[in-house]
Structures are given as C-alpha cells and as structure tokens.
Amino acid sequence: MSVDFTVDRVSRNVHTVRFPLHHINDDQWFLLSSDRHHDNAHTDHAMEKRHLELAVERGAGIIDVGDMHCAMQGKWDKRADRSALRPEYRDSEYLDSLVNHASEFYAPYAENFVVIGRGNHETAITKRHETDLTERTCERMAMLSGHKVHSGGYGGWVRLVADLGSNKHRKLLIKYFHGSGGGGPVTRGVIQTNRMAVFLPDADLVVTGHTHDHWIVPVARERINRAGRVYMDEQTHVRCGTYKEEYGDGYDGWHVERGGPPKPVGAVWLRVQVNFDGKDRVLAYDILRAQ
Predict the structure, then answer these.
(1) Is residue 85 part of a domain?
(2) Residues 76-91: what's their mean pLDDT?
(3) β-strands 168-177, 155-165: how paired?
(4) Which of 72, 179, 221, 241 is the most exposed place for a label (fewest CB within 10 A)?
C-alpha cells in the first residue's frame, strides 16, 4: 500500500506530516520505534521485518527515535565483543558496513520513514570518529530507494496535521527525545514523565526510548482557553522498547553481569483517527504494543 502522507522539513529537527482523514473512523497509522541496534547479534531482524512489512500494508509512517545502530564493536570501544556482532559486519571497514547493511535492509521501506532520529550510540561515533552514521544511512537509503529520508535530532518534533476536508485541519504534536539516564530498576524511568511534562507543555505525545523499557503513561491536565473555559486534556508519554534481546537465558554477557533484567522487545503502533465528539470532528488516537 502506498503512503497517503507527505513529510516536510521545517527545520533540522522539526518535521510536519500531512495526511487526509475525511470521514469518521478514517485512520492513519504510525510505527514508533527506538533502539533497533540493527547490527547487534541479539537484534531480532525477523520481528523488525514483520513490523516493517505491516507498516507498508497499513501505509504507516515510521518515526524512529534513535540508536538504529549499535556501533559498539569497533576496536576502540571497551565494550567491544565480536561475538555480539552479526557475521556480515565482521570486516575491516566497520563503520562503512554499519551504514551499508542497515541502508540495504531499510531502503525498501524508505517511503514509509517519516524521520530517523539520533541516539547516544550514533552521537558517540560522531564525537569520536567525526562521521555521522544517521546522516550517512539516510543518504544511502534515499540513493537506493529514490525516496527522500529525513534525519532528525537527539530530540525534535513531528507535527501531525490531519486534513478533515472542508478546509478543516487538526493537529497532534509529538515531541521525541531519545532518552537519558539508566531508567531505574524500580521506576523504569517513569518518574521522568513528571519532569518532562513541566517543560513540554505543547506536546500531545512525548515519545522516548534509550532504556529498553516499554510503558504508556497518560498525564491528565486542567487547562483554560482564551474565552475562560476550563477543560481537561491529556499528554501521553510513550517509552518504546528495543529490538535487541540481550538477556537470553540469563547465563552470562555484559547485560546479565551488570544485573540487568529482561527487557520488553518490540515497538509501538500509533493509530490516529477522526471522531465526532457531539459538537465537532476531533482527532483521537490509540497506542498499541507492537510485538
């Protein structure tokens, strides 16, 4: 299914997605993903492929918020472990192979990608080796597919603009941020929702990753409009999981030895649709686990 949306770059980390929702219950899907760690031996390529194919079937946009690359197995990295590297990456041109293999894997789905953000694994390579894996991957995906692929920042915005017909539009504002900190063995990083809600008052959804946890936390808010009417809305915080399952049977490995727990594997589906609230047409959305 061909996509029914367009992507415009407003600035280096702000992108606008426009799509039609002319009838009640019309919908537009998006796949929200993070921490693919595509070159890692523990990454589930079959699950990635399954979700990407379903994105094509649904005409879904893909918003990826960083760490598409693992990029930890170079000889300069103290964490390097060749057994954690997929066979196709075991050559002397390691950084080039990251870009080449990832772009070949994702290029068939380039039309569906809205933006590919940067994570700490990509920014670490830029700091140490002065090459931008995200930008190079987007460029090569575009070259192979013929479709423009937009890179984003470590944090940024995606503005979803639904055309309802009759010159009416509704917006859904997504703030993405790859993430920070270790998540926490008890809170799994949920405590950050309260901090982020304070300085991100304009966001309808806040999408993060980094800690390989998965949760959805709606924050209800009391608001007041210019006419003095008090109303309630919600800001929804979504933490995406990962495609890298590094716990295994708990026998050994860096993640196990540091006391890391099993982590949820997968991504998140966002389904946006137009409903009628009794007075006017409004945007509604569902958030579903992608496993």
Answers:
(1) yes
(2) 71
(3) antiparallel
(4) 221
Residue 174 lies in a domain: yes
For 41, the domain range is 6-290
Mean pLDDT of 53-68: 98
pLDDT (0 to 100) of residue 55: 98
Give the chain's domain count: 1
3-state SS, 22-46, equals: CCCCCEEEEEEECCCCCCECCECHH
Rg (the chain; Cα; Å): 19
Q: Side chain identity at 163, as an amino acid letter? A: D
Domain membership of residue 244 (yes or no) is yes
Q: 222-257 as b/e, with b when 16 or more CB fall inside 10 Å?
A: eeeeeeeeeeeeebbbbbbbbbbbbbeeeeebebbe
Residue 112 lies in a domain: yes
- How far is it, in rounded angstroms, from Cα 14 to Cα 31? 18
The CATH number covering residue 141 comes to: 3.60.21.10
pLDDT tens column, 190-232: 999 999 999 999 999 999 999 999 999 999 999 999 999 999 9
The residue among 235, 196, 234, 187 whose CA lies nearest residue 215 is 187
**Can you tell me whether residue 95 is helix, strand or coil?**
helix
Handedness of CA 184, 71, 176, 26 (dihedral sign): negative
